[in-house]
Amino acid sequence: MTARRPTRQRAALTEMLAQIPEFVSAQDLHTRLAAAGSSVGLATVYRNLQALADDGEVDVLRTDTGEALYRACRSATHHHHVVCRVCGRTVEVEGPPGLNTWSQRVSDEHGFREVTHTLEVFGVCATHPVG
Description:
CATH topology of the largest domain: Arc Repressor Mutant, subunit A
Strand order of the largest sheet: 4-3-5
CATH class of the largest domain: Mainly Alpha
Shape: globular
Number of helices: 4
Low-confidence stretches: none
């Protein structure tokens, strides 16, 4: 992890993320920061989110449409997520046994290096009626 210079913008972003339990888009974070009186540009939000993700301080997940959503990482260990498609409620869970071995084997077979993986499970949480 690279030591990064603390900035006012990063502090504002980190503080805002700590207050939001669900995954949110960079645009939503930018809007919330502006509403709170923080003058952080959208490009700065994206740049800082990427740096925070690289440092393991935020979780990132991709929606079906490919949009990146962010949330303050609440676990110090490798984990995955179960996410409600209706309200965004997210639960951190451990991956199935053997997932790391499988992902490394498949990557090796196809010549990939520096392998990482994510596993996101999407559904509807119990607070929302189905049907």
